[in-house]
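Notes on consecutive records. When two proteins share a document, each keeps its own sequence and its own token line. Never mix them. Below: protein one.
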Amino acid sequence: MSLLPVEEAYRRLLGGSVPLTRTEHLPLVQSAGRVLAEDVLARRTQPSFAASAMDGYAVRAEDTQSPYQALRVIGESAAGRAFDGQVGPGEAARIFTGAPVPQGADAILVQEDARVEADSNVRPTASLEPGRFIRASGIDFSEGETLLTCGALLTPGAIALAASCGYPALKVLARPKVAILATGDELVLPGAPLGPSQLVASNPFGVAAMVVAAGGDAIDCGIAGDHVATIGARLSDSIRDRADVFVTIGGASVGDHDLVGEVFAARGVALDFWKVAMRPGKPLMAGRLGELTIVGLPGNPASSMVAARLFLVPLVRRLAGLPDRPLYRHGLLGAPMPENGVRTDFVRSRLEVGGDGAVRVFPLPRQDSSLMSTYAQADALLVRPPSAAPASAGEACRFVVLDEWKGLAEHN
């Protein structure tokens, strides 16, 4: 297969992807950040009674008109302890914020506008209109009203709203299950003894963190050596465990020990593309095996992380039902750049927001695809199009935010 342009590979991978239909019921707190799978209708009216919006006195508005007359205080209404009497002409009831308004009262005289007299009566110092400082019953929502719609992202505000209308748990879309397999005889787990020709497997942990941040569940398939049978067995395990995505890391190139493509071909995987015109990350593959989406990431640490950010993260978000985000954002070059080669170059960079509000992109000095230290320092990937001419600092550019939680996604 020839090298596929980045945007075309992105379109192919996401074009046929739709949110999962599996659902589950979760307690409210565990539902945060998930996608609602059904409408939420109010089970009650909020507030269920007319309530005071201020501390003061429940009165009849007509009794507060000038000339001001003293009102006899006949009781008290507090939150959770309503006054069960009735306010009549020339009367008032002490009331506190959130407390039910007693019968007969139609306004709240705030305590700043009330002068308490020696006999404990209260005299208004301001005139009121009916309804002043009263929250009417149902002002927030009414029983049966649709408050949240299917597909809504459950933000903290949405969780609080669901709680206030009577839901202890919510029906949400299930998280996509993403099985992650690292391949290579040279790999060992962090903390394990390291032989003279071996490397610590870092990629699967970084990719798994991306999957979780994107709204998925990462399934650790461990490390498979360079053996066709072992890689095939892990693929079978993932199918049995009903994974939605099977991700391999490494083994997707053309060397004698790059066996992932051989396993996929033998199992009948329908490859959509293999090799993308990008740097780093060229040996990237994607396809399907029945309902299972296949993503083969390159083995070099930075290459796998860059490819996962560009392709796997948007895929997981789509499957999770989360809203799509733009792949590219706009900023200004913070430093000059030389002309580019024939592939789209994703340059690990840091971002700075200037006093003018513009986001400036500063490429980091070392860009070798094996360097995780550079990736960890980066905020973004500067996008250099194929055959781009040299560019000066201050020129417009595009970039990809690496980690949304760094707070840089709000710009652009």
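Protein two starts on the next line and is unrelated to protein one.
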Amino acid sequence: MNAPFLPQKDCIVGLSPMDDITDMPFRQLCKEMGADLLITEFIASEALNRDAEKSLRKMRFTAGQRPIGIQIFGANEEELLRCLDVVEQAEPDFIDINWGCPVRKVAGKGAGSGILQDIPRMLAITAAMVKRSRLPVTVKTRLGYSHDSMMITDFCEALQDTGIAALSIHGRTKVQMYSGVADWTMIGAVKNNPRMHIPIFGNGDITTAAQAVENKQRYGVDGILIGRAAIGNPWIFEQCQRAFAGLPEREITVAERVAVCRRHLQAAIDFKGERTAIFEMRKHYGNYFKGLHNFKPYRLALVATPTAEATFATLDRIEENYRD
């Protein structure tokens, strides 16, 4: 593999960047559970250039989270180039450009996957950033803007020619958002294009370790990024590593779920403050306790509780009432 900042292994399993999800506390859990590669939440180039506190905080990481990339997005070439100085000061292992986010507030301004309507512009900005950056630059993108404009194999070759070090592809178009089924055949077509030589990562609809192994074997990708399936479930990285090693899946006890969730919440409070942590942790609880019988009253309590003290008390009740 010709990207020395990446782990040298047959299939890298990484955490896909998600806004208000893949913050420093959650990344730490995923790393400890076996994630080979981490990427920050996406960060607006304009906000970095304004020294916005929240955006600067998103770049923070510990040495134990390496290798890690800082993901940036924007539509203005000048702003993107300017923010490289700020990002490089944080000393990540690589800088990831988000040409894949489909949400309206990003794509509607020509950033994220909105730029897939103007491939020449995307290539020009990417090339300028590669030339300007002293760190490796990677890209995350989608299959195209819509099914009528899927030229993924062609524009991925062109992206490679800009000098990027690796490429991640989500198997949907911008128009699809997160609906339908991710098309991994197109990701495989990029990976198996004999003219491609940079590492190719696939992303989309990987919800189990078995799927990760199957997609690696079927499409030959260099790595797999897991997004939504990791929310409230950092164990998916451990499960993937065990599956690739030929080991059976390990049962996760309720006591362990509560302990990790409690640790996650406390770390989030320490990092972001109680109010923000309480709100953002609500996205994780459903998966932390997925499958528990008659769990609805506890879930409602977790998402409605306004204080850390009350949330920790609810977690104590869960552990007491669901003893393994």
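For the record: The two ends are 44 Å apart (CA to CA).
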